[in-house]
Amino acid sequence: MGSQGWDVLLKWMPFFLEEDEDADESGLGWNPRFIQVRDELTDRRVHFAQQGTEIEVLVAVPEDAADAEQLLSVLRIQPDGTWDPVPLPSESDATAPDPQWRAMQRVHQQPRLAREWSTGWQRGESVDHRRGVAQSVVAVLRDGLGMDGDRLRFATWSMDAPGVGSYGLPADRPSERQAPVVCSDWADFEARLSWALTTLPWDGVINLSTPHPGPDPCFVQFLHGRQLFNEASGWDVAGHGAAEFDRRMRELGWSFAPHSVPGGAALIWEGPLAKVGFNPNLEGAPRRTVATFTEVFTVGHPQDLVFRAFRNGRRRDPELRYLDIELGIPRDVR
């Protein structure tokens, strides 16, 4: 299963996020760094996070019961102390004297309850120790999650900007994987958007819409705050009527925003709350966005879209100019 990809990962993983950071000019006050390695076909992944002196490595437990059991069986045979189940909070923990400890006890007593597992090392630990962790991570990805070394894709970013370089693995960043300058089709656009959202800086905004002379007739927008907020509008110009528009949007996973009321500036539909930055989970946002433009707004091609992008606050690259290349669609220059 892709021995070359696994060999590259084994060679370089011990050095992930170990390099010295440049002086932080983000203005954020903190700027952790991240790496994601995923299987391009299954989208299963491993997440690396550097926050302070710790490198944390996280894998998610598959939803399928048989796949989850396979992962657990591989985790059980890893060296003692290498992996820990991530605490699973519950509502009852809120009133406990030490809710974090209670949640941790629960998953240690019942490992099948864990939805994520973690390992890692301290920055500067011996290379031999880091290599041992890397060997265990590869075993878990390959044998526990069924990831294929030939399908591995690499992305890196911080809270302030996406990164470059891929340690010899194929990159997810469009310009590094030599994607066409112009986005070629919806599948290409979905892949580009997935990378752009995964690496979207803190307080970054991406707005996608159809070209128009006035206010947005139809758009999908993303904001990276504490979570990835996602909203869309355009019922009055989509040509389906309000009831049919709402039905189509709900089928795609959108819900009518409770704060959006008739007579307001726009009626808004919201997507499921997603996560970017640390341990991202896009909750299907790229695919839902493509389906919204093609099935609801009846847009024929990604080149019929324009985008706007910016950051709230005084930041480097306030207009996220790197997206001009990476998204491969025109910027709205109104």
UniProtKB/TrEMBL annotation:
Residues 185-305 form the TY-Chap N-terminal domain. It holds the Pfam family TY-Chap3. InterPro entries: TY-Chap_N. This is TY-Chap N-terminal domain-containing protein.
